[in-house]
Amino acid sequence: MSKEFKKRDIYPSPKKSFMFTLKPLSEIKNDCLYVLDANVLLLPYTTDVKSLDAIKDVYLRLVGSNKIFIPSQAIREYLDNRSNKLSNINESLSKKSNQNFNYVGKYPLLESLPEYQDILEQEKLLKEAIREHQNRIRKTMGAVQAWGWNDPVSKMYHEVLSERVLDDAALNLDDISTDLKRRNELNIPPGYKDKSKDENQAGDLLIWHELLELGKTQSQHVVFVSGDEKADWWHQSGKKPLYPRFELVDEFREVTDGKSFHILSLSGLLELFEADIEVVETVKSSEEEVKGQATHKLDFSKPPKKPTTIQASEEYRKHLNIPENHRLIERSSKWKVKGGYDTDTYELVEIDENDSQVAKYVLYDSTKTEPPFNRELYAEKI
Fold first, then answer.
1. How many CB atoms lie within 10 A of CB 333?
2. pLDDT tens per residue across span 208-218
3. Per the domain annotation, does 33 fall within a domain?
């Protein structure tokens, strides 16, 4: 189908599309099938035990009524990213176990002052407390490292969702490859936003075909539980999701002979099934944090508008081991206070003597917002 006839391809039965009414989720929540995306499977790694228990309770209810499923492709993407979540936990603990406290230091001239002696006595107690704190963090790291693939989230999934994975063996990959090419050429959702990827371009489309097949074979409404907010899943307003793309809603209607298709976040699913409001808010907070990380992925494809040497560059240069004949350029920075830390985040580029880019970094400069106001620098080379 050429671009000249794109709309005919998207809406093959316009009269039915025009007359179709999407059923409100509040009316059909007990008649829907709920399908979990990979990002939803990964989200509990950033929540707490209470939230994990609440998620488990909702999943058990849906399993009991045969209403919850996971696409095979979502499982593949989950398995591919689960190690990153566990690694992030271990790395965060490692940073905390190695952070230093800025002691007053030795000042012989002050030794006659009782106030100075009081400081030294207090620092002795602090050193002992910090040493014990670091030991306990390292013990916790040992427990995390002993999990292997038997962490609390994986255990819950094994217990509750082991029989809920869809079988995609019947999907015709040649047909899907052809469909992917068509959608990419005509910008038809889902998946065309991933056409610049080096790999897994068909990930969203594989999941979509599993959703269509499920809705068709079971003749049921489907709710896709996902944190994906890309424009090939959502109509957006102010870069925020507003409605699921009508092309998707109508394609689902076409394939399933009139059934409704919705997209819902994990917090939305918990709210729909009346989970504890505190849990819903905690999961929402985790979703926002994940979205913030995703939208802050660095784009080095364009040169900086006004490259400038970063402030306190000598300190950061030393931390990054930048050679003296290289420059360190700041592309952007941001600031936020969260989790008890005041953090400046810098996007940096190392430039050699020939004005060639040799490395890229993200550097975090964090200071505790409460006494003893510990400060730490952490950088990632990307």
1. 14
2. 999 999 999 99
3. yes
**What average pLDDT does the chain have?**
87
Cβ distance 262 to 245 under 8 Å? Answer: no
Q: What is the mean pLDDT of residues 319-324?
A: 86
Is there a domain that residue 172 lies in? yes
Strands of the sheet containing 32-36, edge to edge, are: 68-69, 32-36, 221-225, 261-264
| Token pair belonging to 213 | 């097949």
Which has the higher per-residue pLDDT, 142 or 105?
A: 142
Phi then psi for residue 200, to 5 deg, are: 55, 35
Contact 260, 224 (CB under 8 A): no
Task: Judge whether 133 lies within some domain.
Answer: no
Give pLDDT tens digits for 111-143.
899 999 999 999 999 989 988 998 999 999 999
Specify whether the CB–CB gap between 261 and 50 falls below 8 A. no
- What contacts 4, CB < 8 A, 6 or more positions away? none
Q: How far apart are CA 317 and CA 329, in angstroms?
A: 10
Amino acid at 302: K
The rounded distance, in Å, linking the Cα atoms of 283 and 227 is 11
Residue 294 clears pLDDT 60, i.e. is over it: no
Residues 19 and 49 in one domain: yes
- Same domain for 266 and 177, yes or no, is yes
In total, how many domains does the chain have? 2
Containing domain of residue 191, as a range? 3-88+149-294
Using pLDDT thresholds of 50, 70 and 90, give the confidence band for residue 148.
confident
Q: Are residues 271 and 348 in the same domain?
A: no
For position 372, what pLDDT does the model report? 60
- CA pair distance 325, 300, nearest whole angstrom: 22
Last residue of a domain, one of 244, 274, 294: 294
Same domain, 9 and 70: yes
Burial 170-185 (b: 16+ CB within 10 A, else e): ebeeeebeebbeebbe
pLDDT digits (tens, 9 = 90+) for 229-249: 988 899 988 878 999 999 999
DSSP state of 109: G
Lookup: tokens for 38: 């990979």
190 and 159 in a common domain: yes
